[in-house]
Design a protein that fits this description.
By secondary structure, this protein is an alpha/beta fold. It has one domain: Rossmann fold. It is 37% helix and 21% strand. It contains 6 helices and 7 strands; from the N terminus they run βαβββαββαβααα. A 7-stranded mixed beta sheet has the order 2-3-4-1-5-7-6, sandwiched between helices. It is globular, with a radius of gyration of 15 Å.
């Protein structure tokens, strides 16, 4: 069993913001594999299904980003999933738009959602997919991440979505090395 968790903030106000790209990607994954996100459990909207023969739970915590760990701890306990069987999906301002990074462990890198998850799961050994949104040219980072994607960024997101789906499906079907080869490749993002 794998628990795929997209980080974001609930509510229409945040729906199409850069900070909610984790929500967006796991909803896309659910749609692609016919998994209905509708059950409410552990302060999260969840759905259960299978991808490449692997049972998965897809979740979108509704606790707000900075408290995501509360929901993740409850979900892990409820479904008997260890931190190593989570796949966290979230935004990263330190990666350019379109870049993805898949890692099996690491720090929070200043991301408050991951800080909460690491704190509540009591380990940094949590697989994660970081989705690049870049940094603002000017202004506050908080305003930028809570702002909507531009029309140009929306076009770039189509490639990000494709790479995310291909990478996570590879991880679930073929393993870590295949997923890293797909998601950590820079030339895919910069034609």
């Amino acid at each position: 069993m794998k628990l795929v968790v997209g980080l974001g903030n609930p509510g229409q106000k945040y729906e199409n913001t850069r900070h909610n790209i984790g929500f967006r990607m796991v909803a896309l994954l659910a749609k692609e594999h016919g998994i209905r996100l509708g059950e409410n459990r552990c302060c999260a909207v969840t759905g259960r299904g299978s991808i490449n023969g692997v049972d998965i739970i897809i979740a979108r915590p509704m606790t707000y980003m900075n408290r995501s760990g509360l929901s993740c701890r409850c979900l892990g306990f409820h479904h008997s999933v260890s931190p190593g069987d989570f796949i966290m999906v979230y935004d990263d301002v330190d990666l350019p738009p379109g870049q993805l990074r898949f890692r099996l462990s690491g720090g929070h890198g200043g991301h408050k959602g991951m800080l909460s998850v690491i704190s509540h799961l009591k380990t940094c050994h949590i697989p994660r997919i970081r989705l690049g949104i870049g940094r603002p040219v000017a202004g506050e980072v908080s305003d930028y991440v809570l702002g909507p994607f531009s029309m140009v960024e929306e076009k770039e997101l189509k490639r990000t979505e494709e790479k995310f789906l291909t990478g996570i499906e590879a991880y679930l079907g073929k393993g870590v090395q295949e997923a890293m080869t797909i998601m950590n490749r820079r030339e895919y993002n910069n034609p």
